[in-house]
C-alpha cells in the first residue's frame, strides 16, 4: 500500500482540452491555440541556440532567465526586478499558491473561469471558495466587504466567457482583499485594456501572462508575471532554479522582440473574431462580446452539447463545459478565417 497525502488521494486532477492524435484531420478550436505560427525569428533563435552540433545544450541555461526579463521589462515599462519568467503561466499560478497559501488557508476565484486554480490549491491542502458573477452588474455574489483569503484569482479577459472586467472594478477588488489579487491575463493581448498599471499602484496585485496564446508558443511552455520585486523575489525562491531551458529562453526573447509580427497576428485574430461573432448572431446564436481569441456562443435552443456533438462528427473540435452555468453554450477558439468559414457553414447545416 502506498500512503499518499489525503488531499492528493482524494483529488481528481485537472483534465486538459482534448488533443487528437491525427490533428491534421481536425479543425481544432478547443484549446485556444493560435492558428498562426510564431514569428519566424523564434525558430531562428532556437536553431541558433541549439548550434550546429547541439554543443550549447551541454551547458545549463541562465538560471535567472535575465534576457527574457529585460526584454519583457522594456516592452511593458517595468524594471526587470518586477518580472519573472516561467515554464508556462501555469507554473506561476502554482508557485503563487505555494508562496501565499499553506495547508488549511483559503484561496478564491471567480466562477466561471479557470478551474485549474482549484486543482493547484488542492495539492497544497488549501481550501477553495468561488464567487459567482451577478448578471448585469460588476459585482461578485457573496463577496464580503473585505476578503480575508490569501489569494483571489481573477481571469481577465474572463475565460471561457470572453468579457473583460472594467479596470475600476479590478481596482476596487485590489483594495478589498487582504491577500493577493492575481489577475490572470492569459488573453489580455487580444483585449483593449489590461491591469498592468494596477501592479504599480497596489502592492498586492500580480499580473500573469502566457506566450501560449497571443505568441503562438503553447508548445514551448512560456509565461511571465509582473509584480512588486518582493513578490518576484519570493517566486524566485520557490521555482525550479533552471525553470526555463535554453531553447525556451531564446524563444521568449525573440518572440517579445518581434512586436510587428505579433501585432499583425493579434490584429488578424481580432478581425476574424469580430466577423465570426457577427455571423453567429445572424444565424440566431447568442454571443458574448469577446476580448479574447475565442467566443462563448450558444445556439438558439440553448443545447450546447447537441451542437458540440454534431461539430465533433464533422471533425470540428470546440469546447463544451458540463458546468450548469456554461452547458447552454460552447467556447470556440478563433482559428484562421478559412477555418471559421467552414465552422460557420457546419453550424448552419447543423441548425
Ligand atoms: C491557457 C491559460 C493559462 C495557461 O497558460 P500556459 O502558459 O500555457 O500555462 C492560464 N490561465 C488561463 C486563463 C488560460 O486560458
Task: State the secondary-structure class.
Answer: alpha/beta
Count the beta strands.
12
- Give the DSSP E fraction (strand runs of 2 or more residues): 5-15%
Name the ligand types.
pyridoxal-5'-phosphate
SS element count, helices: 12
The name of the CATH architecture of the largest domain is 3-Layer(aba) Sandwich
Within the largest sheet, what's the order of strands? 2-8-7-6-5-3-4
Order of helices and strands: HEHHEHEHEEHEHEEHHHEEHEEH
CATH fourth-tier homologous superfamily of the largest domain: Type I PLP-dependent aspartate aminotransferase-like (Major domain)
**Structural shape:** globular
CATH topology of the largest domain: Aspartate Aminotransferase, domain 2
Report, as a whole number of angstroms, the end-to-end distance: 53 Å
CATH classification class of the largest domain: Alpha Beta
Mean pLDDT: 97
Plain-language structure description:
The protein has helices at residues 6-10, 40-50, 66-76, 89-100, 116-124, 167-176, 196-201, 229-238, 246-257, 259-282, 304-313, 337-350; strands spanning 27-28, 83-86, 106-111, 127-132, 151-155, 180-184, 205-210, 223-226, 286-287, 294-298, 316-317, 330-333. The chain folds into 2 domains: 14-37 and 260-350, Alpha-Beta Complex (Aspartate Aminotransferase, domain 1); 40-257, Type I PLP-dependent aspartate aminotransferase-like (Major domain) (Aspartate Aminotransferase, domain 2, 3-Layer(aba) Sandwich). The chain has 12 helices and 12 strands. Helix content is 38%, strand content 15%. The mean pLDDT is 97. The strands form 3 sheets. The chain has a 7-stranded mixed sheet, sandwiched between helices. Strands 9-10-12 form a 3-stranded antiparallel sheet. Helix 4 packs across helix 5. The protein is α/β, with parallel strands linked by helices. The termini are far apart. The structure holds pyridoxal-5'-phosphate (PLP). Pyridoxal-5'-phosphate binds at residues 32, 88-90, 114, 155, 159, 184, 186, 210, 212, 218, 223.
Amino acid at each position: 500500500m502506498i500512503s499518499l497525502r489525503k488531499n492528493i488521494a482524494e483529488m481528481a486532477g485537472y483534465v486538459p482540452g482534448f488533443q487528437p492524435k491525427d490533428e491534421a484531420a481536425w479543425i481544432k478550436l478547443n484549446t485556444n491555440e493560435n492558428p498562426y505560427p510564431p514569428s519566424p525569428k523564434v525558430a531562428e533563435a532556437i536553431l541558433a541556440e541549439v548550434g550546429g552540433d547541439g554543443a550549447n545544450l551541454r551547458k545549463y541555461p541562465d538560471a535567472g532567465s535575465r534576457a527574457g526579463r529585460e526584454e519583457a521589462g522594456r516592452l511593458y515599462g517595468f524594471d526587470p526586478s518586477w518580472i519573472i519568467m516561467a515554464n508556462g503561466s501555469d507554473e506561476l499560478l502554482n508557485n503563487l499558491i505555494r508562496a501565499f497559501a499553506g495547508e488549511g488557508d483559503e484561496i478564491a476565484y471567480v466562477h466561471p473561469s479557470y478551474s485549474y486554480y482549484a486543482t493547484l490549491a488542492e495539492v497544497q491542502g488549501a481550501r477553495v471558495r468561488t464567487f459567482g458573477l451577478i448578471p448585469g452588474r460588476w459585482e461578485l455574489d457573496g463577496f464580503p466587504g473585505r476578503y480575508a483569503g490569501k489569494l483571489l484569482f481573477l481571469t481577465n479577459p474572463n475565460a471561457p466567457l470572453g468579457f473583460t472586467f472594467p479596470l475600476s472594478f479590478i481596482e476596487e477588488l485590489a483594495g478589498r482583499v487582504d491577500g493577493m489579487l492575481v489577475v490572470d491575463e492569459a488573453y489580455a493581448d487580444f483585449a483593449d485594456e489590461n491591469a498592468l498599471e494596477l501592479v504599480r499602484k497596489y502592492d498586492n496585485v500580480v499580473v500573469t501572462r502566457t506566450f501560449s496564446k497571443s505568441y503562438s508558443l503553447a508548445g514551448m511552455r512560456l509565461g511571465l508575471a509582473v509584480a512588486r520585486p518582493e513578490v518576484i523575489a519570493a517566486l524566485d525562491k520557490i521555482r525550479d532554479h533552471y525553470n526555463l531551458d535554453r531553447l525556451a529562453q531564446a524563444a521568449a526573447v525573440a518572440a517579445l522582440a518581434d512586436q510587428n509580427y505579433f501585432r499583425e497576428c493579434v490584429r488578424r485574430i481580432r478581425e476574424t473574431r469580430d466577423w465570426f461573432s457577427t455571423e453567429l448572431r445572424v444565424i440566431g446564436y447568442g454571443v458574448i462580446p469577446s476580448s479574447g481569441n475565442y467566443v462563448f456562443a450558444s445556439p438558439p435552443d440553448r443545447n450546447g452539447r447537441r451542437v458540440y456533438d454534431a461539430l465533433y462528427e464533422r471533425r470540428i473540435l470546440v469546447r463544451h463545459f458540463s458546468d450548469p452555468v456554461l452547458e447552454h453554450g460552447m467556447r470556440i477558439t478563433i482559428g484562421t478565417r478559412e477555418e471559421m468559414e467552414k465552422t460557420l457553414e457546419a453550424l448552419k447545416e447543423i441548425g
